Amino acid sequence: MEKIVLASGNAGKLKEFSQLFSGWQIAVLPQSEFLQDEAEETGLSFIENALIKARHASRASGLPALADDSGLAVDALGGAPGIYSARYAGAGASDAENNQKLLQALKDVPAEKRGASFHCALAFVRTADDPVPLVCTARWSGVILAAPAGDQGFGYDPLFYVPSEQLTSAQLPREVKNRLSHRAHAVKKFEQLWHEEMVMPEQQAHSATGTKFF
Ligand SMILES: O=c1nc[nH]c2c1ncn2[C@H]1C[C@H](O)[C@@H](COP(=O)(O)OP(=O)(O)OP(=O)(O)O)O1
Ligand SMILES: [Mg+2]
């Protein structure tokens, strides 16, 4: 079975990915099996950071790697915290501290102006220096509540209200979050790319255009 490394140290993400990849014919291994240090997220976009993390994990493991860079963009804050979501309340901040800081920043913003989106960028590299990575993005729109609700999930889930379900992302059954979320939709797009770039070229061994390095 093909092995790929999942380049994330976030337990909440890893749990979601294990569900999202459950039907796949590949072994998705957590990066903790190969490396201890985390990549420095120096990019200016989710895509750049996802690529940095994927290359870092592939370099350390010698395996193909998939990374997720994600975050919450709040309309009333001009898209903040965005790529800085994990470090919104400072380096190493907890989810609770980040949520608290967000509530404080939005304390005077009325309900109708509290729109926000989760963004997810996935980057897959076959090798650390892969010049043709597979990249896809997706977003999920919602509203930031004035107080947290729900205890499932991670990150900003307790503050992210999903209008279509009338629940926060932390109150949704996991299978519902894994159908609706930014990560779920990015994985769907990745599945399409994976099929086109990694499965089809193998089936069409004579194709001159396929790029499959393993
Ligand atoms: O579905 C989600 N539900 C709630 N919160 C979420 C979600 N998706 C991303 N988020 C938040 C968590 C963190 O504050 C930031 C991700 O930051 P991000 O750098 O991509 O991940 P991370 O540092 O936690 O782990 P890693 O970089 O090892 O994958 O956005
Ligand atoms: Mg991170």
Automatic annotation (TrEMBL):
This is dITP/XTP pyrophosphatase. It catalyses: dITP + H2O = dIMP + diphosphate + H(+); XTP + H2O = XMP + diphosphate + H(+); ITP + H2O = IMP + diphosphate + H(+). Its EC number is 3.6.1.66. Homodimer. Pyrophosphatase that catalyzes the hydrolysis of nucleoside triphosphates to their monophosphate derivatives, with a high preference for the non-canonical purine nucleotides XTP (xanthosine triphosphate), dITP (deoxyinosine triphosphate) and ITP. Seems to function as a house-cleaning enzyme that removes non-canonical purine nucleotides from the nucleotide pool, thus preventing their incorporation into DNA/RNA and avoiding chromosomal lesions. It comes from the Bacteria. Keywords: Hydrolase, Magnesium, Metal-binding, Nucleotide metabolism, Nucleotide-binding. Its cofactor is Mg(2+). Substrate binds at S8, G9, N10, A11, G12, K13, S70, F154, G155, Y156, D157, K177, H182, R183. GO terms for cellular component: cytosol. Binds 1 Mg(2+) ion per subunit. SUPFAM superfamilies: ITPase-like (SSF52972). The keyword Acyltransferase does not apply. The active site is at D69. Mg(2+) binds at E40, D69. One of its GO terms (molecular function) is metal ion binding. One of its GO terms (biological process) is purine nucleoside triphosphate catabolic process. InterPro entries: dITP/XTP_pyrophosphatase, ITPase-like_fam, RdgB/HAM1. The keyword Cell membrane does not apply. Belongs to the HAM1 NTPase family.
